[in-house]
Structure formats: structure tokens, C-alpha cells
Amino acid sequence: MGFAMAKRLLDSGCRVSVYNRTKSKVEPLAQYGATIVDSPRELNNCDIVFSTVSASNDLIAVACGDAGVLSGDVQPKMFIDCSTVSEEASQQVRDYANNKNVAMLSAPVSGNAKVVKAGKLTIVASGPKAAFEQAEPYLAALGAGVTYVGEGEVARTVKICHNLMLGVVTQCMAEITVLAEKRGVPRHAFLAFMNDSVMGSMFTRYKTPAFVNLDLKPTFTPVLLRKDLDLGLAAGKNLGVPLPLTELTREIVDAAVQHGHTDCDFAVLLEEQAAKSGLSLVPENVEVDDGLQ
After folding, report:
1. Which of the following CATH numbers is that of domain 2-151: 3.40.30.10, 3.40.50.720, 3.40.720.10, 1.10.10.60?
2. Cys bridge to 40: 69, 94, 150, 202, which one at CB 3.0-4.6 A?
3. Is the pTM of this model over 0.85?
4. Fold observed for domain 157-276
5. Long-range pairs, 156-160, Cβ under 8 A, ≥24
């Protein structure tokens, strides 16, 4: 994800320096003009620093740790985090940034590396309005749309709401696909109908190739989905909002993780549903449009 985002910034004419814990993953960006650095702190002379990490503790470490972006004597003008993390962790980093006189935007994204490459990434942002207005051209360069939702950490809640729907819709998609196949309908035919109907969406079309051909190369793992479902359930508890569908989906996703599905794509929910339904799936080996072209 971060590689594709950095590539879009480079393509838009920005001067870009990049860091990754596994350096080899970002070294190919050098051929496009990026400068590769050895620690987050070496990014502190940039005007704007973007981060995208997997979990809350990773954000705190990359921003506030001993070698963090904000830990040195020199500071960037703005710090923008595009991860899906808890409000509490984000607020901790925001407080740290404020003490360093660094503006911070919470700007989680919807999509993955393939979506970024297709120019369809969307972003929801919160934080100081003046900082958002300054950063908006760079955020817009990353994809198809940027939405500002207010001050503070409200963008974190918006993204968690998004990922709750992601989990619930994927599980529903798995259930109805298995139901149709048990009646004798090929997956590619059933999903072609669904995608062309009023119930189809960019997401259902994008996920169709994985469902049809059982390609479970990870775009988003069950472990990460479970983490986001947990964040959503915690938010629901704090705000007094019951989330029964989310609770059930969380149980199903956790069962997939307990069955060892940790490093694959969360489309494995289809295989889990099939197993519970007495159905043995095989790839259909049908070329399917993912809707991203």
C-alpha cells in the first residue's frame, strides 16, 4: 500500500523520501526518484510526512519512538497518518505532535495497493481545517476522493465504520455465493448477476475474481479484519450503539483465524462458509473483470 501511494506522489511531481522496516520493499522506488532512508527520523526534514502501518502500537513507535518521525530536534511541518488504528493511539500521537508544534491529520484510506494503482483510493480526514486545506492537493494525488469530516479523531471512527461494513458484506457475500452454488449455479455466473444488479458495488465486483478463482493472495488478512471489528465493537460500547451483526461477523472471522487462516486474504471467509455447508470448492478458472480498469 505505502509503495503504491509513494509512487503516485512521485508521479505527481513530488520529491519523496521513503522508509520501510523491510528496506528491500521500497528500494525499487529509487528508480522513480525516491530517496530511501534508514529510519523514520530521517524523514523529519520533509515538509509533510505520511505514515501507513498495520496497528496502533506501530503508529506510536513510528511517530514517537526513539527513532520516530517526531523524535528529533528537527520536525516536519505536518504529519499525516493513513492507517486504521484506535482513536486513543491516534490522540496520543496527536498530543505528541502538538507539543512539537507539528500539525497532524488522521487520514485513513479505503483500498489496497491494487486500488491505489487504479487511482480509486479514497481518503477520510480529520484534524485542523487549515492543515487539511494545505494537504488536500497531496491527498488528492493519492486517489479518487478526499472527504474532510471535522476536527480531532473523527476520521478514525468513519474508517472503522467502513471496515465493519467490509466484514459484514464479505461474510454475506460468502453465504449467498455458497447458497447459489449448492443449488448448481457457477460462482462466476451468480456474481456476474449480482454485480450488474442494484446490489452490486465496486467492492463486490473487485472481490469477485478472488471468489471465482479462489485467489487468496492477501490484500487484507483475517487478522487485520478481526482487529478492526474489535475496534468497532469497542466504539459501539463506548457510544452506546449495539452492533449485533458486527458481533456475529467478528465471531466468524475469529473462527477463521483460529483455523489457521492468518496470512491469506479475508476472502477465505468463502471457503470457511463452504466447509460449514458441506461444499468442496474448486477454482473455476474464469477470467473475471475486477472493475478497476
Report:
1. 3.40.50.720
2. 69
3. yes
4. N-(1-d-carboxylethyl)-l-norvaline Dehydrogenase; domain 2 (1.10.1040)
5. 156/84, 156/85, 156/86, 156/87, 156/90, 156/106, 156/108, 156/126, 157/87, 157/235, 158/108, 158/124, 158/126, 159/84, 159/108, 159/109, 159/110, 159/124, 160/84, 160/228, 160/231, 160/232, 160/235
